[in-house]
Every structure is written in C-alpha cells, then in structure tokens.
Design goal:
homodimer, 71% helix, Tetracycline Repressor, domain 2, 2 domains
Chain lengths: 196, 196
Amino acid sequence: MTKRPTGRRPGDPDETKRAILDAARRTFATHGFDRATIRAIATEADVDPALIPHHFGNKRGLFVAAHELPADPVEMFARVAALPVAERGAAAARSYLQLFAGQDSTGLSLLRAAATDADAAVMLREFIDDTIIPAGLSVLEHSEIEGELRVALIASHLLGVAVARRIVGISPFVDRSLDDLVAALAPVIQRYIDAP
Amino acid sequence: MTKRPTGRRPGDPDETKRAILDAARRTFATHGFDRATIRAIATEADVDPALIPHHFGNKRGLFVAAHELPADPVEMFARVAALPVAERGAAAARSYLQLFAGQDSTGLSLLRAAATDADAAVMLREFIDDTIIPAGLSVLEHSEIEGELRVALIASHLLGVAVARRIVGISPFVDRSLDDLVAALAPVIQRYIDAP
C-alpha cells in the first residue's frame, strides 16, 4: 500500500475544488489579487498547480468562484458590449445591480469587508484595476477618450446605488423596483458610454 | 495638592467633551464603528472611559454627536441652491467629495460604520431620508418631477465615487485631482439637477 502525502483522496474532484477555493480565499485575502499566484494557491491547497486552470480557467475565474460572485464581471461586460450601443446603458445598469441583489449577496460582503479591512480593500482594488476596468472599455463607444475614467464613473455610480439601496437602504431606492431604477439610471450610464 | 493624571483641567466638561469628540472622529475614521471601542477612544482622548457613557450614553450616541458637528449637508445644499442653476452640478460634486477628503474624514467613518453595523446603517438611512433628501430638493430645477429619486441618484453617484476613490482606491480615481473628477462628474450631476 502506497503512502499518500495528504489526507485528501486523489480522484475526488469535488474535494479538490473545495480545497482550492478555501486556499484561494485565504491567499487572496492575505496577499491581494496581484500577488496571489496560482502556484501559491496550489501550494496552500496542497494540489498540483495544473488543477487550477483545469477547474477554474484562470486566476480571475478562481477569484469569481472563491467569492461566489453570481456572475463574472468580465463576461457581464462582454454580453453588454455585444448589444447595440443605444441599449448598453440600461443593460449595464441592470446587470450590475443584479450582482448585489440577493439577501446574502457576496458582492455586498466583499464591499463590507473592503470598507473595514485594508487587505480586503487592496484585494478588491487590484481585481477592479486589473480586470473590471480593462473589460469595461469594450462597452464604450469611444474608449480611446478617457476610457478608464468613464468605466470607473459607470462602476462607481452603480456601486453607489447598490450601497445606498442594499446597505444603507434609503427610501427613494428601496421603494422602487429594479426596473424603475434601471430606467432612471439608463440615460446617465448611456451618456458615459457614448458621449463624445 | 493632588496629582492630576493628565494635563486637562478636571471640572471643565466642555473641554473633556471636545477631546472625546475629536478622539472619536479619528478612531471611527481609522477603525470603523465596530472596532473603535469606547476604551480605545478614551485612551486616544486621554480621559477616564467612564466619562464617555456619562456624556454621550453609548458608542452610537458618541458617533452621532461626533458627526453632527463638522459636515452639515443641509447647509451645503443651501449654498449650492443659492448658485445659478447651471453651476450647481459642479458645486454639488465638489462639496460632496470634500466631505470625504481628509485622511480622518468623518464621511468615511460614517460609511465604514454603515457597511458593517446595522444600527449605524439605520442611523445613516434615517439621517439621509429625513434631512438630506428633503434638503437636496432645493438644488433641483424641477423638484416636482421625481425630485426625491433624482436627489438620491445624485447622492448615490457621488457616494460611489467617494467609496471607489477613498475606500477601494481604484486607479482611475486615485490618479486624478479633485478638480479633474469634479469636471468629469459635473455634466451628469447637472443632468439630474435640470433635466426635464
């Protein structure tokens, strides 16, 4: 009988994935998004590094899975960017606000952590700077003109609405449906997307 | 003559309260609501911890008192509303972002508390619903049309920028001056103020 190096059963993919996700949460929280390498996470999880791309694609996919985000923001932007320009404002507002929709929304818990924990804020900043801002450029009509600033303005407006609605809970937002809010936001988000 | 433990005059309650409020603002801004203990604030203020409940009831009472003093959003809106309509978008953006400007910004401390403490979120919600939204109506050109929603959209956009810039610290905002950000935000805030 051969000695196994860990208590983990080889060949149980569910257990391996769970170990990788646990290790990823710890490593992202400690080192931030940039410095949490696939290799470091694999070491922490005591698995072959090749299993991470196998199960999660890349580091972004692992981050999305580890934090149970309901959608990959990069895929979300790709879907919005596939629409005609004039429809993108409403679609971006709807998709984004849905990230914060559930009662135990993981988007909310990431925000709560970032508000009080410096390491969590660094992790979120690096994730946004490295993945969300570049992906957001694809939805803009004139991405060469202050594109990153405009993506940041879109994201921050919707972030503020999510915080005001779901964390603070102010009446003008709580009393309205998602559809009404999307309709109110769409022209302004659209302006950031296609204003020259 | 008895030895006094600090340089502060005992028996001067105004000076003691002022020292406590100063210490509370610094401590809440640094640590958020949860982790800023009465004991830590008392140490920071160099006073007996028992004086804090004596003067302010509990930590939330202290929090409310500490934040009533500096930023009066009602006066801020009154100053913006006194300007010609076309200038109000930039003025509102500038005034609001300045609430979150300092290193020990009281606005940031309010936000951190609301993100993690349900009582603080309720307090902030009531404060916004009861005072900020009604006061904000005065800056609108057509306040009878969905006025409260438009004030909430202005406030939430600027809130999101403040969170993204000062808490998360994303590059497109951190790399820009307040003037540049105000210039980028002004047309959209202006739209909420005067669009029919």
